[in-house]
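Kindly inspect this chain:
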Amino acid sequence: MVEDTSTNLTEDETELYDRQIRLWGIESQQRLRNARVLVIGLDGLGAEIVKNLVLSGVKSVLMLDDKESIPQDTSSQFLIPVDKVGQNRAEASCQRAQNLNPLVSVQADTHNVSEKSDDFFHDFEVVVSCSQDLAQNIRLDNICRSRGIAFIAAGVYGTFGYIFYDYLEHTYSVEYSSGKKGAEVKTKIETTSYPSMESVFNINLSDPEVIKSFIRPPPAFFILKTLYKFREEFKRDPTDSEEDFKALLKYRDTLLDGVDYPKENIPDVAFRCVAVGQLSPCCAIIGAVVSQEVIKVVSKKDEPHKNFFFFNPFNLSGFIQSIVPS
């Protein structure tokens, strides 16, 4: 992708984004102003992300979703009016999203993401995938990697949430000082490399050196792999039924077979926490973090997350975990 930051902000944009400009500078806002973002999946999480990105002042947001909205969506998807339940989720979200900021182009695409050719993704600076299965996310990440596009995958399951980031080779600026009163604030340029989603999820958990990095953090990566396995087998998210609960426990046990990781670190109750649908507070938290990271990667300012953010279902706190194949 060829970056263009030459377009100056209009007087209206400068006034509207005044607080943001004072926070991260005119150049960063210009980068945002030229950014085209694709958001796949307009569930409660997707709605939160779209809201935040539209308010931040990106150039455009394309919402891609082939599903019809259902009454349950109204508990977390605030962009869909009650009288539009039954309509396509992306189309039903358009008007309220556009009303948030008339300076941002907001459009809907009602096709299934699996129908999109590789060339479709070429025009975006960032692709955000919400609540897709692992195979689809790996496909999307590989397409984005081949075109130099930043990719983010995210999902919310009850009180559990995750974000995966792949920014390829990302260069960014960081401000620092000695910490002394009146010390000069300087800027340094850093570069960090990200592994592909495929390589991360094919990591060898039977390797003792690999498993060492999972001992201290909460077992969120194992919970995510279990959820992805359920999605692969059932083509849907788990419910609070006993059948689904037993299936999740079976997939957890299979995942840990031959892995030197204590099963008690992933207690059964964890899978009661994830099988209650999307909760609005969790969507708000994960959506805010995703949007913050989109702003970071587009503006090339401040240190980005590498390469997971998890919302811990046990104590309802978020943490960053770097999982990088050796």
